[in-house]
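note to self: dont lose this again. the chain is below, predicted strucutre after it. 673 aa total, dont forget to put it in the shared folder this time
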Amino acid sequence: MEYIIFGNEQTKVYFGKEKGFLEKIEYKSRSIDLHSKLWSVQTKEGELGIADMTRFRYETYDGVIELFWENDIAKVGVTVKNGGDGKFRWRINADLFGGEVVRRVKFPILQGMNFDTENYLLITWQNGRILRNPVDTFLCKGLEVPFWVGYGTHAYKNEYPAAMSFQYGAFYGQDYGYYFVTEDPDVYIKTFEYEYNKEMHAMDLTIVNYPENMGKTTSYCMPYDFVLKMYEGDWQTATNYYRDWAIGQKWCKKKLSEKKLPEKLVKTDLWRINHTNYEFGTDTQAYFDSSVKLRDELDCNLALHWYGWNMGVHDKDYPEYVSDEMKAKGWMEELTNWNKKFDDEGIVKIPYHNARLWEKKTKTWETMNVEASVIKDETGNFPDEPWMPWMGYELKPMCPATALWQNRVADLCREYCTEVGFDGVYLDQIASYNATLCFDETHPHPAGGGTWWNDTYHSMLGHVRDIVGEESIVTTESCCETYVDVFDLFLVLDTCFQYTAFNGMANGNAISVPLFNLIYGDYALAYGSICKFSDRPDRFEYNLVRNTIWGFIPSIEGVDTDELANGAEYLKITKRVVDFYKENKDLFLYGRLAEIPQYTCSKTMELDWDASHEGKNRFTYTKSFPTISAARWESAAGEQYLFAYNYSDDAQTMELDGKMYEVEAKSFAKIAL
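---
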């Protein structure tokens, strides 16, 4: 086959001279076969690809190659720029004729990616996951991905912004890897797809681009670069590449050291979350008493992430929350008094609110004409909300661009967050759930794709901030990067081994990695994860310690009255963690996690973890860990430190960069580097 060869001394891409397929990549001395179809355009009548085009030509000049395909109804062009830093920058444009329209553009489509040696795929869902040997352990298995993680069969797919927290990924083996990213500063909706290529027993990477006015426009010009870089390194190498770009974007205007953080957030030493024990939050007296006891036992400033404050069933009657019956019984006045009691004890409390859903069975559905502001799909129907249909709820996702939903969320924050004495608000799902295409032409946004999802949520959150004030804590679920500039902190729940849904799918071959903390640790704060007193002490200790040295504000889950009464061992562990956080609070708040270093430890330990797929096929797997967890930190002034914790009952040593460090039994160490 004859090739068009383009690139530099380090990396070259090979296109077929006859049709323009991407046939292979040459990286240093390695020849990597791909045979990628590169792009496809979904039209009203079907799908166009390179094989459908009758004419192909190309031009090269000054570090640029332009590829052109044509037939009777379409012209498609791809531009590739050689950045000189090993990065290739790709864009596509498509024009259709004869009444055809553009619906979706898949670009790039990189097919046949795999390695002969052990390899890893970095998926930027939530705070980040690494899948070991993803083709063999996950993609080829044909498992249906559960909706709270993504979707796909023989594939993993998810949207950016929100469900995918970042717009990059990495697929790497022992000798080289692919770093890929859409450098999109304006936050267009897009889908990342990792699919099983059965013919090549490999992985295909596809990015789905959604034009504004989908199904009506006759052209699409990609408004951002797709960047591909072949590199040597691991997930941290790729993450450092991404940080260099990401911190220059509009959501990173100020570092934490330059921001005005709410005073109560700065003072908080421990978050208590009752995410998996909603009912306990409805027993206000017990919730109050246990909070006071927990604060006293740990000698800390306590903040509550409170589910059940509304005295209703979770997820029912959104967004009314407090029923007319409870209001008639005087609950709002009683809640105000409870908040004053918490205030008197110096305990901060943040109420749960959903910022995305409206239940069709509420009385306001008809009276407020809610249907007009619900997201509509391409057929004009309401998309189904997957959460909890088995409980009989009819939850409908709201379009964040509509005035009704913008005002409703703002009114809820005013009513329940300022008038009854809460210290801020938790707005669920904004930084976690898929950006969703909406085709209602009466809504103030382009039909389908564009930047409107991110833009309108920013408008909403600006209004909320004006209402609650700069001293109120405003937080959300998960850690999508584009909201760093509007939230004070981010709730990240799925970082613990036994609660990592990917492990159920990948048979234990998935681990959590702290992408948000590594990229944005000096720009944003995170808390959360499900660390329960009901878990085994060794697993509780490992999760809580590791999360803290990763940069999460210490957080525990639940802790009901019985767990608190019988939790001496857990309290001892928690106090150790909280005390270390208090001693180093300025570094945790204003510095950043800089690296998970490679080190050796004198001993290892084994821990068992539980996993399942969609609540079924439960299994236990064992992982071996060093008896010391460690992370390198950088202060706001640029000083370097090592945070380390020894889980063992004996002093342990670790070797890092040729130096030996000793850490006392069951204790933390902070070491200047």
